[in-house]
Amino acid sequence: MAFRLPSSAELLAGMRRVLRPRTKLGKVTLWFGCLAVIAELLKLAFHSPAGGFLSGWATFLSFVFVVCLLLLGVRWVRRKLMWRLRNRLIVTYVFIGVIPVLLLLAMGFLAGYLFAGQFATYVASSDLQSELQRLQATNRSLTHQFRDLLREGRLTPELAGEIAGASNENFRHRSVTVWEGNNGYVLGEGGPSKAAQIKPSPALQRDFSGVVLDDGRLHLRAVTRLDEAAHHLVVISDVPITPELLRHTTAQLGAVNIYPPEDEGNGKFTATVVPQQRRDRSQPPPQRETNSRSKSGNSQLTLDLGKSQTSYDISGNEARAVYAGSVPPPSHVLDMQVALGTNLAITDWVSGKSLTALIAVDTRPSRIYATLFSTLGEYAGVVRDVLIGIAVIFGVIELVALFIGVRLTRSMTKSVAELYTATEHVNRGDLSHQIRIRTRDQMAALERSFNSMTVSLSDLIAEQKEKQRLEGELAIAHEVQTLLFPADLSGLPSLEVHGVCRPARTVSGDYYDFIPLSDARMVLAVGDISGKGISAALLMATVHAFVRAYAYEPEQTLVSVASGGRRSEAAVMTVVANGSGDELCPASLMATLNYQLYRSTPAAKYATMFLACYDASTRLLTYSNAGHLPPLLLDVNGGVRRMETSGTVVGLFDGMTYEKSSVEMRPGDIFVAYSDGITEPENEFGEFGEARLIELISQHRDEPLARISEAVTTAVTDWIAGGEQPDDVTLVLARAR
Q1: Do the Cβ atoms of 422 and 118 come closer than 8 Å?
Q2: By three-state DSSP, how is residue 271 classified?
Q3: β pairing state of 255-259 and 299-305
Q4: Residue 384 burial class via C-beta count within 10 angstroms: exposed 0-12, middle 13-18, buried 19 and up
Q5: For residue 460, what are the contacts with CB-CB under 8 A and spacing of at least 6?
Q6: In this structure, are residues 701 and 669 in contact, taking their beta carbons and an 8 Å threshold?
Q7: Which of 5, 103, 113, 465 has the maximum number of C-beta atoms within 10 A of its C-beta?
Q8: C-alpha dist (Å) from residue 676 to 74, 540, 628, 684
Q9: How many helices (H) and strands (E) does the chain have?
Q10: In angstroms, rounded to a whole number, what is the distance separating the alpha carbons of residues 233 and 227?
Q11: CA angle at residue 418 from 415 to 419, to 5 degrees?
């Protein structure tokens, strides 16, 4: 492809993208770039020195600008290079297959290094503890022998020296100090010695064994005390920690160094570690530095040991630190040097305080491996070769898996490219495009599914259009049904009314109405149609029309019932007895409604209905109930009366008659009618229930009826805890004034 210079239009477009970025990160980068340029110009103009105020701000702004540029670069690379699925799959394989292996190798290397160091320090510490236990056992044995001689009056320094000399071959440079009361002497080989006596520590009044720091040097020391009636015997065995004492340990590991703390008083020091390979054992230890700066070629070491930070001035401790052995030569190229330290608990001999020394081991993995598998003998090399072989096999498997993964990406990306081309056809509205299937794998199944999808997509679009049409009709039905509910809630001068209906679906099957007959009379109607949705809403509209028609023309109720050819004379007489024909009788209206619904609706359709007529002149509420939940009357004194008179649901059986009853509503009494959508919703605590409804209304009885309705419906919504509303929620309230 020949190189082509960009045109002026392309250059202008590029400059426009730079000067007018569309992303937030681009805008932030542009602002910080401008601020960085301004800061640099100000620094040059005012000749700001390095480290000054302007220089600091210029450096900070430049740093933020560079970081934002890097983020923009990463985003551009991801957008340009990672757009192709093949590149993404390759990167995914790297992250899944390569990086975890590298992390495991790094973790294994770090864990192996720590394990090797800890194992080496453990071996060194264990050897010291073994020597200390042998010294303690020998010291205890000497003490008991001296006690027997003391009881017989035959204990002399010469005899004690002969006894102690029998075990000198097990401990080089050991000294034994015997105290009889306040008289003490040091035992050498074959008798008393002129060596300095070791005085008992005033802080250690019991038997003791451990590593002690005495006069700035480290010792293995064991103390055994025997107190009898006339004798007080103290035997102190002491072995200085020297390179010769650590000879067995260094033969196993390599270089072993022990550094006591510099100052036993505060436990806070600064340490200068002399590298092991640079230290010349033939030369005397360097003199202690007076200042805190370390010599060239040394390194500072501060360790967190125990509860407080403990450091070691090893350059100052050269005279009393213990250096034993040397780093073994590498056995192969990968036989790296391993250096690690650990705590060594010691005791200050004078004060008895617990201190912490540092024991450092400098060795190699080959020496640690030989020590660890020393019991295998000549088979240790076989185990090593097997482990190396397993590692090589795993590496080869990893490379083969990576190669196979890269090869598989080509077969997958080809199918994905064809799918992408097909989606572009669908995006243009071409649903006739079909993918050519060449293989029999899962990608081929996906291609067949895509072809099937394009075939059925047209049908789905048609169904969606039909669904949208039905949803539009439901919305219109909801608006029409909303108009059926009473809009005028002014009530009567002596009666305040309010009603609310919240459908479980788009339209409701519940019904309520307030029909004012005059200034002193009003009909209250509440019903619940069987079923939900459109069919229940249509039946609700039918009930609404019947109730309104016969409420305004009550004389038609008798005519309608009496004109039924199949009605019995007894039924007609019962209806006539319940109403005079001039005034509305709820029982007559209920019987007429049952008559009409039975003949105009399917056999499975019915409704529960409560009809009541309030007369302001007598304050009587005359009602008839057809299977609806008994309404409640809450008087001003907190009493609750249920309107128990009830009959069969309307529209299910022919020839039904209904009774009527009356209750008096005194000022302040509240009439409550509701549907089962209020009392029957359930949660883990059970149903909402009638008792909770009565309690809510009693708590808010002095508030407006609209506020009481809102409190009840909100409580029902909270009771189902955001779940689907199981049924239509209808509540009708009336309060006598």
Answers
A1: no
A2: strand
A3: unpaired
A4: middle
A5: none
A6: no
A7: 113
A8: 62, 16, 9, 18
A9: 17, 25
A10: 6
A11: 85
Q: What is the bridge-based pairing of β-strands 686-687 and 682-683? A: antiparallel
| One-letter amino acid of 390 | I
Nearest to 257 by CA among 327, 337, 322, 325: 322
For residue 374, what are the contacts with CB-CB under 8 A and spacing of at least 6? 380
3-class secondary structure, 620:
strand
**In this structure, are strands 308-311 and 299-305 parallel, antiparallel, or unpaired?**
antiparallel
Q: Which two tokens stand for residue 445?
A: 């199944």
Listing DSSP states for 128-188 in one string gives HHHHHHHHHHHHHHHHHHHHHHHHHT---HHHHHHHHHTTGGGSTT-EEEEEETTEEEEEE
AA identity, residue 650: V
Token digits of residue 241: 């920690």
Query: CB count, 10 Å around CB of 225?
Result: 17
Contact 46, 54 (CB under 8 A): yes
DSSP category for residue 278: G
pTM of the model: 0.44
- Contact status, residue 536 vs residue 602, Cβ threshold 8 Å: no
User: In the chain, what is the straight-line distance between the N-terminal and C-terminal CA atoms, in Å?
Assistant: 94
Taking the C-alpha atoms of residue 575 and residue 563, their distance in angstroms, rounded to an integer, is 13
347 - beta bridge partners? Answer: 212, 354
Local mean pLDDT, 10-residue blocks, the chain (737 residues): 60 70 84 88 83 83 90 80 72 79 86 83 88 90 87 83 78 86 77 74 88 90 85 89 88 89 51 41 38 37 40 48 90 84 89 90 84 72 80 84 75 78 84 81 83 84 83 79 80 91 84 90 91 81 87 68 44 44 79 90 88 92 94 91 90 90 93 92 89 92 92 91 84 93
